[in-house]
Amino acid sequence: MTRLDNEIVVITGAAGAIGAETCRRFAAAGAMVAALDKVKPELGQVALACDLADDCSVEAAAAHVRAELGDPSIVVHAAATTEFATTLASSPQAFARVYDVNVGGAVRMVQAFAPAMIAAGRGAVALVSSINGHFGAPGLAAYASSKGGLDALTRTLALELAPHGVRVNAIAPASVDTPLLRASFALQDDPEAALANNVLRHPLGRLGTPADVAALLLFLCSAEASWITGACVPIDGGASIARR
């Protein structure tokens, strides 16, 4: 069983389905968890409300985590926001808002916690990207663009931090069964048909689960993945090999 005994981990988006399951999985593996979200999460040894798009909010949260638990050796950025709109129906302001949480939030987390990892000569960062960062995603223009940016950030950070023993990886889920995904189906004329059609896009014949995602994040942040960095690992039920 993968263990993270006594490791200190910061998890963003911890009030969401994927973030909360990740908190539970990391805690079960022995980690001390600092859980962050825009609303205070219910999990973690430390649970904080934090606006990832706000420099002062992130700085205050980082100081609190260090005071309560110490310097984290692992950062998992699972927080994300979206807009359901095409490029022409969106606005530059909406693009900037989505980017500032999805990518800017990752940057703020790394800037807050990577210096201590560098000093220690070890650490791991895992970023939750999306299959939509690689494929076209009509109706999710700002979200897809931000996830493409997150993929590029992963590769750049991995190269910058590798000499210091700090690994940076991303994962690229397809459709994971969360309240946010269900809300997107609810916007369609026939939500049940939208769900069924979405399932058909995945050769394994089902949606992903938060537990699927949390298990991969745990592996990538563990010593078992000590020779993996700069990767964006698909977790998509085969959707990226049979895009349909």
From TrEMBL:
Protein's name according to its UniProt entry: SDR family oxidoreductase
Highest taxon listed in the record's lineage: Bacteria
Family stated for the protein in its record: Belongs to the short-chain dehydrogenases/reductases (SDR) family.
Pfam families (UniProt xref): adh_short_C2
GO terms assigned for molecular function: oxidoreductase activity
Domain Ketoreductase, residue spans: 7-174
Keyword tags: NAD, Oxidoreductase
Keyword Transcription: no
